[in-house]
Design goal:
By secondary structure, the protein is mainly beta. Helix content is 11%, strand content 32%.
């Protein structure tokens, strides 16, 4: 009986189910899942499994060719669009054009497109 009473008193002092942990900082944190499952969101809601990472798929990028002109400024043909270093295509920016590949940057991660023969 004493244990039950002590547990009830302790639970009442802590605040029961309404326990809130306050932070000393008023910073708001955000989480970018980058298309992966967010570890802070339950996988089961309302008795059903919730799919995670449900981003719309990006358009497939195809490198058709690379052209080098006499000035040394290369141009790449990606999805029938001419792009140079610094240009944007879809959600990517052209970071580098090599003789056999193009390096795109998107969401801080590189994507290397090779010429498809």
């Amino acid at each position: 009986m004493r244990v039950l009473l002590l547990a009830c008193l302790t639970w009442g002092l802590v605040g029961g189910a309404g326990l809130v942990v306050a932070s000393q900082h008023d910073e708001v944190s955000t989480y970018d899942s980058k298309g992966k499952c967010d570890p802070f969101v339950p996988l089961v809601q309302e008795g059903r499994l919730v799919p995670c990472g449900a981003e719309e798929p990006r358009e497939t990028l195809v490198l058709a060719g690379i052209i080098w002109d006499s000035s040394g400024d290369p141009v790449a043909l990606i999805n029938n669009t001419q792009v140079g270093v610094g240009d944007a295509i879809n959600d990517y920016q052209v970071a580098e054009i090599r003789h056999d590949a193009v390096v795109l940057m998107g969401d801080g991660e590189p994507l290397v497109l090779q010429i498809q023969f």
